[in-house]
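stage 2 :: seqdesign
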């Protein structure tokens, strides 16, 4: 995959994109939201979005047929406060890359896990699938979440308790969602860093198999 960096006032966020060497129209679009430790402003901070998540598998040798965008939240903000901007940012990426609007995916870890749950609850019609990692959502909005979901959490997480993921998944399943399309992985004997176990080729392939 080729890595590119984008800055400037024309964008809602500065961000990194991983893309195939040969760009084609109608590629799927995957957006990854980082955690609170990776906020930043300016070129010197943008490397932080690569610290956790899919970056470890998006190497020069490994090509995936998709656009992966990693925006960076400003230090004075947090993802849940940026939900309309996330929506606008996604549309701008769709326009720029002429991406497949039936195959838009959202994932995020910790603060980005909250951002994933909350953004998907606000704009459920937008996403073909989501993968929140060690975050939490609004249980009373669970009936809105009709898309495939694969959520991850560490069983020993004391930063964001695993009950936040468990309650969301149980409520979504109680609303009649197909169990095969609403998956939950609680990683035994792991604390907050469930992202080390979540962001694998298996998750990437699962996401890319879904279509709205």
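stage 2 :: out
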């Amino acid at each position: 995959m080729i890595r590119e960096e984008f800055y400037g006032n024309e964008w809602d966020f500065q961000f990194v994109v991983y893309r195939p060497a040969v760009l084609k129209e109608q590629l799927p679009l995957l957006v990854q939201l980082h955690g609170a430790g990776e906020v930043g402003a300016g070129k010197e901070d943008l490397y932080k979005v690569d610290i956790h998540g899919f970056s470890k598998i998006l190497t020069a040798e490994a090509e995936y047929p998709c656009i992966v965008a990693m925006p960076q939240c400003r230090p004075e903000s947090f993802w849940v406060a940026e939900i309309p901007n996330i929506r606008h940012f996604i549309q701008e990426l769709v326009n720029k890359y002429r991406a497949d609007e039936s195959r838009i995916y959202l994932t995020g870890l910790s603060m980005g896990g909250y951002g994933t749950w909350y953004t998907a609850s606000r704009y459920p019609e937008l996403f073909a699938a989501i993968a929140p990692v060690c975050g939490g959502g609004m249980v009373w909005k669970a009936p809105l979440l009709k898309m495939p979901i694969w959520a991850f959490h560490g069983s020993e997480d004391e930063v964001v308790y695993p009950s936040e993921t468990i309650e969301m998944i149980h409520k979504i399943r109680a609303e009649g969602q197909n169990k095969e399309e609403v998956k939950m992985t609680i990683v035994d004997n792991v604390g907050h860093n469930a992202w080390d176990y979540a962001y694998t080729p298996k998750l990437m392939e699962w996401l890319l198999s879904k279509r709205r």
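stage 3 :: structure notes
- Helices lie at 83-97, 111-122, 163-174, 195-198, 201-208.
- The chain has a mean pLDDT of 95.
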